[in-house]
Amino acid sequence: MKNVFTRLTAKTLKANRTRTMVTIIGILLATAMLTAVTTFISSLQHYMLENVIAENGDWHGEAMQIPEKKVEELAGMEEVTMQVTWQELGYALDGVKPSYHNSSGLPYYYVVGIDADFEKQMPIRVTEGQLPENDRELILSDQARWALEQNGTPVAVGDTLSLDLGERLLNGERLGAENPVVYRDEENPDVDARKEELQIREPREYIVVGYMEEPYYGWNNAGFLCFTRKDTSPVSDCLYTSFFKLKKGGDIYEFTDAYLNDYSVTYNSELLRTQGISANRAFMRLLYGMSVILILLIMTGGVSLVYNSFAISVSDRTKQFGLLASIGATPRQLRSMVYREALILSSIGIPFGILSGIAGIGVALSLTSGSFRYIYEGEIPMRVYASWPALLTAALTALVTVLISAWIPARRAAKIPPMEAIRLSRDIRISGREQKRTRKTGRLSQKLFGLPAGLANRYFSRAKKQYRATVLSLFISIVLFVSASSYSTYLKKSLFDAKAVPEYDVSVYGVHDPKLRQEIASVDGVEQALYVQECYPDILLKPEQMDESARKELWEMEKDENGYLHLDGKLLVLSDEDYEKWLLSAGLAVPEEKDGQIPLMIGNEVRAYHSATGRYQTVKTLKSAGEPITIMLTDYTAWQEAQEEADGGQVDQEPYQISVTGYAAKLIESGPMNLFAGDMGLGMVVSKSQLASLLGEKLESCLPRGCVYLKATNHQKVAEELNKLIETVDTEEYLYVNDAAQELRGMKSMLMTVDIFAYGFIALISLIAAANVFNTISTGFLLRRREFAVLSSVGMTPKEMNRMLSYECVLYGLKALLYGLPVSLLVTWVIYRVVGSGMDTEFYVPAASIVVVIASVFLVVFSTMLYAKSKLRKANIIDSIRQESL
Predict the structure, then answer these.
(1) Rounded to 5 degrees, what are φ and ψ at 139?
(2) Minimum mean pLDDT among 60-74, 196-210, 386-400, 789-803: which range?
(3) Which of 454, 479, 689, 871 could form a disulfide with 446 if both were Cys (CB 3.0 to 4.6 A apart)?
(4) Which distant-in-sequence residues (6+ apart) come within 8 Å of 330 by Cβ?
(5) Closest CA to 13 of 344, 321, 339
(6) Are 304 and 479 a contacting pair, CB within 8 Å?
(7) Of 243-257, 472-486, 509-523, which gets the smallest average pLDDT?
(8) Do residues 682 and 602 lie in contact, with contact meaning Cβ atoms separated by under 8 Å?
(9) Cα pseudo-dihedral 588, 590, 591, 593, rounded to 10
């Protein structure tokens, strides 16, 4: 019997080629989208993984200052699949002034020994020379080279470096690389006033054989990392730093808590996050939430299309199922016929869908691979990586989608009693209540729109399942389209915040000379130049001055003895002319001083980290304009002189701070050229004359940073010309040209990539939705060819037939929109909540998508109706009346 049912199923599919092709196309599209999603995720993860390993190394955890016995214990553990170590040989004073270190007060070389295994497993980028080959050769970091050159004591490759190696001790306790340098007076950390002690173990002479980039894993709080080779006979109390990898990366946090709780441990966070392991719960919620929504949208589209195909197929073959049941076919055999149909269609649609998905994502990545350098600037390109788990996931998800779609129709086929199936009476059973309602609505619609409308209402009551299937098909199409558009919009928002993008193209830092400013503004290609003097002062505010959201949700800081909270700030000082021009362009009046307080234009929105939720949030700082603000400016000239008198030591900044009082004249959304973008402090703008009225001759010494911001027609050409210009300038000032537009180009390229994938996703979802609607409505019309033939035979004219079908199409569209639009907004809100769990964003109503979907619904419905009519027009009325099915 199995062969009979299979042959019968295949024969039915061949007889209904249009429906069969539409169903295969639906399965193909759904599979292609699932494959594109899983392959893209697989490719992106592989790309990120390769770059992270190339940059940071392939390890999960780092255990610092562990004894050799612990190293051997880790090596013997079954959970540990890889371990390399460096040998801590000691610290040595480098003799460099603190101002030339990569951070204040790092007075040491940190010398460690490595071996061949470490060199093979961990990335080491040699910029000059080579790696050491024995324990008397040494390679220094580029940061050390820069510091030594600035200090006037450069060390070239081939030079000999004498170091007195020892241990850092504090109260007899050994300090490690994770411990900052401890001074006697933390307020005045002079190199010669270290509280910690360097206990010399032995002097060593090294030949410097090269320089390297400071590795990510080699960052420390004490000095510059240097590599040599491991001692073959280390001292008994020698300590090691272990870099290890576990068999299951997800167990890393539990593993370190269990076995390394007594030691300092750090993690390769980038690698763990790339592998889907992250302690940042907000990030993981966002990542998994968006992925689940995407898969559900695709599955919903696939299920809706394929389900309608099977439902219509079962409805069309009801009499066939009844005849088979009457000659002995069991319910299980009838269900198996529907499942066979599903498997036959899947065997064609899924393989071609997988190939189409790989090809589609391959083309997309080949066009946009350069855009992914915004994520990692390494040499490894983004390419298609179709892993077997990704393809298997797509194939199984597609198969499950098809089987779910066939499940309900299969149950329905098996439950129909044979006599009802043969008579085709089940689908036209109408309750008494429904008959009364139909008569009422039928009379009303007939009175308003004529006999065709009354006949359409009678059809809706008689064929409720077909009517509901059509409305459901349209409903799902509406929800899919609007949800896909919202998903894409929120995805772009999560990657790119337009408010965080400055409006200038090129900037030149360190400019003070008015003549140089004029030369910069006169460079060919410069459209607009704005000179700004900047500083980053402390801001003092009372808690009651702050907006409730900022006070309660973000700043968990203690008040000082005077009851003030200390916030970071950014002060922009413009010339009076530029200040007035900017206010005029923003539609603002020039504010006046009030009671000795200078007016401040406040960029009130501040982006800050909320530790409770583990994400950044944008909040309003001040509750209203008019609030007094205390700004603590620093007299940098006096402070620098004091540092020089201290012979390179550090001098506390507080005695050289000057208190300036202003008031919030206006709360603004953005500063000139959007210069507050990306800053996490309170932004302020003031005119130079107003600030000078309080500071007097101290003005220039309080504003150490002068910048020229430029808008340019060709940012690359302007940046090149400016670099040539500053090379000719004879000045002690440090001048730096920043091509911000070039940096922004990477973000825009990434946004373009997201757009390509987003619109491709929307297009495919739209195709599934359109195919779904086309399949449902066209098949429904074709199934009614006998009804249309009977109506034509009793005198209904083509014009009246058009009116009846048009009325049906309008009702389909209105009913679907009535249910579809509210549900679409609900799904949009769910997406908003998922995105909001990982980032700060606002609810977005997809108005443009709603307008498009309203127009598209009626366009697709009427187009499908016209297609079905063209098919019916060719049929003979007598043949159609005699025919019982498609």
Answers:
(1) -120, 130
(2) 789-803
(3) 454
(4) none
(5) 344
(6) no
(7) 472-486
(8) yes
(9) 170
